[in-house]
Amino acid sequence: MSTPSTTRPEPDLAADGAPRGQAVLDGLVELLDLEQLEVNLFRGVSPPQSPTRVFGGQVAGQALVAAGRTVPEDRQVHSLHAYFIRPGDPRVPIVYEAERVRDGRSFTTRRVLAIQHGEAIFSLSASFQLPEEGLEHTEPGPVDVPAPETLPDIGQRIAEGGRGGWLARAPRPIDMRFVDEPTWSTARTGASDGPMRVWMRADGTLPADRLLHVCLLTYASDMTLLGSVIARHDLGATQLQMASLDHAMWFHRPFRADEWLLYTCYSPTASGSRGLATGRFTTQDGTLVATTVQEGLVRLPRR
């Protein structure tokens, strides 16, 4: 994986004062560049601005890096399946142990266990494939979606009075432009039966490293997906206990994570304090490049 230069420019500031831009993106790339401790053994850290637990997209992205480091460069990841087992502690490093499950003629399978304090906090299985030609089709892309350049970014929304949730004041390596009112917006008027759509791209320029782009998208995919569960309900300022439980992704075609991708998220069901969310990443020309599915804990406050 390519790494950023050791000399980075000072970060830009969003409208609400949060750091953003190429310097912040370079910091995320550096975060994904794991230290190799031994064969199949890697170590990652969390950024100093972390919340009380490790962000799920971070541990998923780092685990995928660990898997990819053990696979020949001519094989590209096409799917991952992961479980969030325990909350991660951002104050201490995470050790990633990769298991070389199978090396076939076309497919390679890896398992990765993320460990802290002697216990597993996250597990991932990933499959890699040698590029092949075959059938090609895709569903039509979304229509009548405003261009990302016409929409306010997160900093503008917060500066105009939005609460921002956990995104408020945090560094933003991912530029996000919500098409629909986010669940934390003060302009939101109630529940919605439609999907939640947000344009995303890495806020800067990335090197031409396909694994890096896939890991960046894995990181970003966990940022808004569970929000589609909340969007189906008129909860106002209700404080929910939320956490990702499991996460799956399929990567259909090559893409660049530093170009605009529309993330269309929808929750078909919620029950038993769990919500299911699905997501589709499409390019600006409507090409489907990745699909996500996640189940998360969405627990109402105890009375």
The count of strands amounts to 14
List the domain count as a whole number: 1
Number of helices: 5
Give the N-terminus to C-terminus distance in angstroms: 49 Å
Structural class: alpha+beta
Shape: globular
CATH homologous superfamily designation: Acyl-CoA thioesterase, double hotdog domain
Order of helices and strands: EEHEEHEEEEHEEHHEEEE
Mean pLDDT: 90
The main sheet comes to:
12 strands, antiparallel
Please state the CA-atom Rg, rounded to the nearest Å: 19 Å
CATH architecture: Beta Barrel
| Amount of beta strand | 35-45%
Write the layout of secondary structure elements.
Blueprint: E1 12-13, E2 19-20, H1 22-32, E3 35-38, E4 41-44, H2 56-68, E5 76-84, E6 94-103, E7 107-116, E8 119-129, H3 154-159, E9 174-178, E10 196-202, H4 210-221, H5 227-231, E11 241-251, E12 261-271, E13 274-283, E14 288-299
Antiparallel strand pairs: 1-2, 3-4, 4-6, 5-8, 5-11, 6-7, 7-8, 9-10, 10-12, 11-14, 12-13, 13-14
Protein described:
There is one protein chain. This protein has 303 residues and is α+β, with helices and mostly antiparallel strands. It has helices spanning 22-32, 56-68, 154-159, 210-221, 227-231, and strands spanning 12-13, 19-20, 35-38, 41-44, 76-84, 94-103, 107-116, 119-129, 174-178, 196-202, 241-251, 261-271, 274-283, 288-299. The protein has one domain (12-131, 148-299): Beta Barrel (Porin). The chain contains 5 helices and 14 strands. A hairpin with a 2-residue loop joins strand 3 (35-38) and strand 4 (41-44). The longest helix has 13 residues, at 56-68.
